[in-house]
Amino acid sequence: MKNNKAFYRSALATAIVMALSAPAFAADNAVSTTPVTLDKDKTTLDQDVVINGDKKITAVTIETSDSDKDLNVTFGGHDITAASTVNQDFVEGVKVSGNKNVVINATDSTITAQGEGTYVRTAMVIDSTGDVVVNGGNFVAKNEKGSATGISLEGAQGNNVTLNGTTINAQGNKSSSNASTAIFAQKGSVLNGFNGDATDNITLAGSNIINGRIETILIAQENKGTHTVNLNIKDGSVDALAVKDSTVNITKATVNTGTFASQNGTLIVDASSENTLDISGKASGDLRVYSAGSLDLINEQTAFISTGKDSTLKATGTTEGGLYQYDLTQGADGNFYFVKNTHKASNASSVIQAMAAAPANVANLQADTLSARQDAVRLSENDKGGVWIQYFGGKQKHTTAGNASYDLDVNGVMLGGDTRFMTEDGSWLAGVAMSSAKGDMTTMQSKGDTEGYSFHAYLSRQYNNGIFIDTAAQFGHYSNTADVRLMNGGGTIKADFNTNGFGAMVKGGYTWKDGNGLFIQPYAKLSALTLEGVDYQLNGVNVHSDSYNSVLGEAGTRVGYDFAVGNASVKPYLNLAALNEFSDGNKVRLGDESVNASIDGAAFRVGAGVQADITKNMGAYASLDYTKGDDIENPLQGVVGINVTW
């Protein structure tokens, strides 16, 4: 009996407690059937939201327009559901509006938008100018009859959206035009169009797209708008990835997806890493693949895109690593690899080869400039030596044996003094000179310059029978700087070094005159130059250049005519010559790779000039040449000089 009384007392106490707790229990599990707004005054969702109807629905609105600071809202594990049978309007689970940044804490919450109409159903709409960060959350969009969208980005200037640990599941009708779209970035509408530029940046960090594609649409008036969508996947998975006019960035993580479809899509990878796009099922469409250039060698065995059976994906791309470019190539297994193309130099390769060769180009031009002074004295009847100054310059185009093509635009000034000694059988000319020159170099996406200062000594012997011999020696100091701009946004690397050069030249020929003013000068010339080897670094990678040598031979003929203009003597002439660079072993090394930076081979030169004795004590001369060979073209190279004698 006592036990029965104790039982009844316990049951009664339990009933009283349950009765007293019922209101609180009911409040905790209450469901809002009317739309809810979260703003600066209310940042926490305190109950589930379920909205049903036959019109447009927005279950929860996050409004930041009236807030003077960024918002941090919390769904508190509550679910949000918007369901409507409306045909030509939207069903929205959550909508973000305003101009402030928003952090949405949606852990353990499911946001569902469900409908049966033909328009897109969106679990979340972001129509704001601020950045949006979503932590957690399961976003589901369902539409058995039309298209379904998980997250829709509609900010006029673009959105920056980060999804941390978020799941997106878009379940649309397969026959619909947009079907299932996980993330949909749209700018403009059919009515008002879009005239500006916009960029949507989407980051998936530990987030999963278990169904749906990433798609973008731009409705622009008169094509004035430019819309870019970047998908940056740091960690996570995509069950079925589809991109249209969009960019997927997998530089931070390997991405696994069941199927892959691309329409004018872009994939950004890091070819110096092992992060890849692994597609277990069918891959289709067209895809551009970019990887930022680097100085690192690329593993040609890494499949940066692996595909499943019956895939028809067409992927193209080029990047660079070390000394060469790498082309994206589909292997026999159907996967895509970056394969080294030894016929295409990288930016780094082009720069270090051009920087090795450019001082030699400048030094040879300085030697040609001095030779122009020796030629002018030989043609003059009044020049007994004196002081002289020359401007020289030219545009040069070169291609090295290592496939580095570069342009060099050189400008310089040379100043000298000499004296001429007459002898019974001819004359001697002895002099010294100094010059300053700068060459602006461009190659691929990179640029640099070479500044050179040189000192010269020269000696010429001319005989009365027409034979002449010219000799010269030079010493030069060259400072070289460059900005290596790696392709595909790989950044810019600075490089610089100094070197010294030593050169010598000998030229011999014969001057024939007919006594009526016509003269012909056949000649042969040989010049040699060596530049000291150098060591420097590109972004911590060692660069070594061996001693750079040039041995240049030239044989040609000058044909001119001497006539008087008043008291002046004028001698115009034409020049035709064949040249050959004999040196072909100039190696440069970047890290563990080396390449030949020589510019060897034959070329032809055609030119015209004039020498004038303006007065008994003043002369002037000018020449303009064009040179063309397999690996060299100087479309314009000239010298203008003036001399004063006494």
UniProtKB/TrEMBL annotation:
<dbReference type="Pfam" id="PF03797">
    <property type="entry name" value="Autotransporter"/>
</dbReference>
<dbReference type="GO" id="GO:0019867">
    <property type="term" value="C:outer membrane"/>
</dbReference>
<dbReference type="InterPro" id="IPR005546">
    <property type="entry name" value="Autotransporte_beta"/>
</dbReference>
<dbReference type="InterPro" id="IPR036709">
    <property type="entry name" value="Autotransporte_beta_dom_sf"/>
</dbReference>
<dbReference type="InterPro" id="IPR011050">
    <property type="entry name" value="Pectin_lyase_fold/virulence"/>
</dbReference>
<protein>
    <submittedName>
        <fullName>Puative autotransporter/virulence factor</fullName>
    </submittedName>
</protein>
<dbReference type="InterPro" id="IPR003991">
    <property type="entry name" value="Pertactin_virulence_factor"/>
</dbReference>
<dbReference type="InterPro" id="IPR051551">
    <property type="entry name" value="Autotransporter_adhesion"/>
</dbReference>
<feature type="signal peptide">
    <location>
        <begin position="1"/>
        <end position="26"/>
    </location>
</feature>
<dbReference type="InterPro" id="IPR006315">
    <property type="entry name" value="OM_autotransptr_brl_dom"/>
</dbReference>
<feature type="domain" description="Autotransporter">
    <location>
        <begin position="380"/>
        <end position="646"/>
    </location>
</feature>
<keyword id="KW-0732">Signal</keyword>
